[in-house]
Amino acid sequence: MENSNTVSIPLPKGIILMKGTTEQPKEQVTTYQSMIGSLIYLVTSTRPDLVYTISFLAQFSSCPTEEHIKAAKHIFRYVNGTRNLGLFYPYTTTNAINVYVDADFARCHDTRRSTSGYIVLFNNCCISWLSKKQASVAKSTTEAEFVAMSYGTRHIRWLLKGLADLRLHVPIVMHADNTGANFLAVNPQINVRTKHIAVDYFITREALEDNLFVLLKVESVNNLADICTKVLAQPAHQRMVGLLGCR
To answer: Rounded distance, CA 99 to CA 153, Å?
Structure first.
């Protein structure tokens, strides 16, 4: 793909892919898995702009179709045009951590499970990112967002341990764009709409009570974790890439 025509976004906006219904040729499966494996290495190291795309396509590794391989080649065309893109960490004298969390409700067309994601900025520089399909089916957007917040909270606890070893005290702010999930995180009330949510997802409320971080509402258009949960249109994608500190 090194001589392929380049594209401006990892996947076409509105793309819908589903699991293969028949067993595919072994050679095709091996090729697809090799393609996704190399892209996983890339996204793990320096490319948060690919985090959702690769997580999404990796779900089809056991039975890929021609459509999946076509989508993977589309990503390589994007990588070909952005091969010099990388994370930039400028010098700064301030210390602050901002965690953006988001979820896309019922994104998976095969299981109807939602996708969670978070972006962690240290002094406005991206240091950690995640895109992951949730373990169970969320009944509402609020529940999906609340589960995403729990993923971000777990990562914050891990960060705090590292900061403690370095004897650093850094203020941490979590940004979420769902009003219902934000209310659920700070309000001890449990009603018929929320009592079915697994108890382990309430670690966000516990962390807030312990003053580990501050929870703030952010407008959806400014939520950096959007790039971890869905395919964005070209203007939004390029804007997010810049905000992540990719240069």
So the answer is: 9
pLDDT at 151: 95
Q: Report how far residue 243's alpha carbon sits from residue 198's, in angstroms, rounded to the nearest whole number.
A: 33
Please tell me the CATH code under which domain 97-243 is placed.
3.30.420.10
**Percent of the chain predicted with pLDDT > 90:** 72
- With contact defined as beta carbons under 8 Å apart, do 101 and 174 qualify? yes
Angstrom distance (rounded) from CA 147 to CA 200:
9
pLDDT band at 196 (very low <50, low <70, confident <90, very high): low
Closest by Cα among 229, 232, 228, 203 to 121: 228
Determine the Cα–Cα distance for residues 222 and 214; give it in Å rounded to an integer: 18
CA nearest to 9, candidates 243, 240, 231: 231
Q: Model-level pTM?
A: 0.93
Spell out the domain ranges in the chain. 1-85, 97-243
Are 133 and 158 in contact, with CB atoms under 8 Å apart? no
What's the pLDDT tens digit per position in 134-158?
A: 988 988 898 899 999 999 999 999 9
Tell me the angle at which helices 26-45 and 66-81 cross, rounded to the nearest 10 degrees: 30
For residue 211, what are the contacts with CB-CB under 8 A and spacing of at least 6?
none
DSSP 174-239: EEE--HHHHHHHH-----TTTTTS-GGGGHHHHHHHTTS-EEEE--GGG-GGGGGTSPPPHHHHHH
Mean of the per-residue pLDDT values for the chain? 91
Helix, strand, or coil (residue 133): strand
Q: Which two tokens stand for residue 7?
A: 């594209």
